[in-house]
Amino acid sequence: MSAPTRPFAPFEWLIALRYLRARRTEGFVSVISGFSLVGIALGVATLIIVMSVMNGFRHELLKSILGLNGHVSVQGIEGPLLGYDAMAGRIRAVPGVTRAVPVVDGQVMATQNNVSAGVVVRGMRPADLKSLTLISDTLSPGALAGFGDEANQEEGVIVGAGLAQKMGLHPGGSITLIAAKGNITPFGTTPRIKTYRVAGTFRIGMIQYDTSFVFMPLAEAQLFFNTGDGVSGIEVMVTDPDNDMAQLPGLFRAAGRTARLVPWQDTNASFFEALQVERNVMFLILTLIILVAALNIVSGLIMLVKDKSGDIAILRTMGASRGAVMRVFFIAGASIGVTGTLLGFIIGTVFCANIENIRQGLSRLTGTTLFDPTVYFLSRMPAEMDAGEVAAVVVMALVLTFLATLYPSWRAARLDPVEALRYG
């Protein structure tokens, strides 16, 4: 009696790879195997691309939203926040806090050149605006120098580049701001209207802010919005915004009982929850592509086993064990899965690395605007690959394809050589 062969011996690989080659009599089986390989490659590539785009989308939005608004907002319980300089100093002393600056916020109507738009005015000190790198790194030349220049009679403001383009504004020009809550007269409250000089523009790449934000010197914003000696709040930034909840007790002690804390999760909870739900749903839907491709492997291998029943019987009579036969068909199916997964990984990685160039090329080719900035709030399509997620996608694809080969391989191993030769 011959000794059992070593698992995954060279002859098993040789037979399995020969079965995968297309021959005229096995063309249909090869077509199914080809579709399975393409399906797995497309499924893996699509999953990597979609998850990377969702990650990049969340990262860019989070960077823009939190980079401008802060991670925790300290606000007054009743009306404007008083004693803000001393409070900001205490907050800066809290471990993990990187920035704490007073701001005055208000919604107004901006008008110029017969164009009107609702905007958000944020009052900040020039030094605080300069330290806000998300804005200061994108300012037009000379914008910061003309912002709150006391030597100039006219107060300078900095507007978003999108707003400037929409209203035909330019540095050195003017913009008129109208606040609903203005001066109190015997006839009631009248809107406050004032014209400001445009000191410069900024562009952070997020359309929502580039088209609706105006920065004003803090002292002037206090006058314009009638906050007196108070401010709307203190914008606090911490080292780890995803873990800012753990720092709320320390921030509350530093702020005192006259203030309330509003973390960014409360302000943007519904928005980021919707992104997370969409991300999870997309992952489940796109996983079905890989699952369908794996089922194609099952059907292809079952047909291959039926077609090769005579060969299996001969191998068994020549001394091949059931384990050897099972491994032959396992190798055949697993080769399709591994090759498709590898191709999908390469396609997905290359696509993510060049996604913006591909988007622009498709836009020019089709004559349409793909990833419209006015809809998605970003001026470019982001893609951020996460090594853990990519590894999870690859492992999931390999596991599904390996599992898909088990039943056909087991069926081939259980084939009775006598029956196969009799009816083959």
**What is the count of DSSP helices, taking H or I runs of 4+ residues?**
17
Helix and strand element order = HHEHEEHHEHEEHEHEHEHHHHHHHH
- Strand-residue fraction? 15-25%
| Total beta strand runs | 9
Question: What is the C-alpha radius of gyration, as a whole number of Å?
Answer: 33 Å
Helix fraction bin: 40-55%
Main sheet: strand order: 2-3-7-4-6-5
Outline? elongated
Overall structural domain count = 2
Contiguous uncertain segments of 5+ residues: none
Write up what this structure looks like:
It is a single chain. The protein folds into 2 domains: 10-62 and 271-423, no CATH class; 78-257, no CATH class. The protein is built from 17 helices and 9 strands. It has helices at residues 10-20, 27-69, 84-92, 126-131, 133-136, 161-167, 207-210, 218-224, 248-255, 264-267, 269-307, 309-317, 322-353, 355-366, 373-376, 387-413, 417-423, and strands at 72-76, 97-112, 115-124, 156-160, 174-185, 188-202, 213-217, 233-238, 259-263. It has a 6-stranded mixed beta barrel. The longest helix is centred in the N-terminal third of the chain and has 43 residues, at 27-69. The model has no long low-confidence stretch (mean pLDDT 81).
List the helices and strands and how they pair.
Blueprint: H1 10-20, H2 27-69, E1 72-76, H3 84-92, E2 97-112, E3 115-124, H4 126-131, H5 133-136, E4 156-160, H6 161-167, E5 174-185, E6 188-202, H7 207-210, E7 213-217, H8 218-224, E8 233-238, H9 248-255, E9 259-263, H10 264-267, H11 269-307, H12 309-317, H13 322-353, H14 355-366, H15 373-376, H16 387-413, H17 417-423
Parallel strand pairs: 3-7, 4-6
Antiparallel strand pairs: 1-8, 1-9, 2-3, 2-5, 2-8, 4-7, 5-6
Helix pairs in contact: 1-13, 2-11, 2-13, 2-16, 3-9, 11-13, 11-16, 12-17, 13-16
